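Reviewers of the previous submission asked for a worked example of the structure-prediction workflow described in the proposal, so we include one complete record here. The input consisted solely of the amino acid sequence. No template or homolog information was supplied to the procedure at any stage.
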Amino acid sequence: MASKEILCLFDVDGTLTKSRQEIDVNFKNFLMEKIKPLANIALVGGSDLTKIQEQMGDDVIHHYDYIFPENGLIAYKGGVLAHKQSIQEFVGEEKLQKFINFVLHYLSSITLPLKRGTFVEFRTGLLNICPIGRSCSQKERDDFEKYDNIHHIRKDMIKALRAKFPNSGFNYSIGGQISFDVFPIGWDKTYCLQHVENERYREIHFFGDKTDLGGNDHELFKDSRTIGHKVLNPDDTKEQLIKLFSL
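From that input alone, the workflow returned the following structure tokens.
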């Protein structure tokens, strides 16, 4: 797969797109016309493939060299499914149910400005926990993010889960505006590197917005195998790419 010496590895949400929105067509064309001739391009996200397609286009697996949904637990190389791992098979149903039952009990005991639906989303490689419910509107997302920045709903819930399940083997990371991910230790975004580390890239540049400790880009940003770039938004990502490749 490594037809070039450099791999540009991008987080999706907040890095290539505004939160849960489609990529700007001009930025998409910039990646295809200016960056792809110079480097191979990979996308990694905590979301499943369907959500990445919603933001990056239905044909995303055919336009980028690698697509790593769910932190790389699902991996596409050259448009072909190359790897799949399941949290259910790895952890076991009994352990998962105890964990999910506590999550639902905890959420039923807290009061927020509003709640909607889909509080636990079961994905192939992780559980996505959303205190407000994933079926909220964009405005409700924005409002919850502001509320959470003040009241630390997600951080406090993670503390409670760590206390209740101290030996669970789970790790937790906050990403996006409204939720956090739960996954086996080692199944953060660094998991995706196993699919590219033997491709003999001279440099692997990772671009992410949630790179601070506790954010879901932190581990990949700090990994010794990558050159990390902290970005503020898609416009900042574009500016950093222009500087990196002297465009």
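The chain has a mean pLDDT of 94. We consider this example representative of the routine output the project will generate in years two and three.
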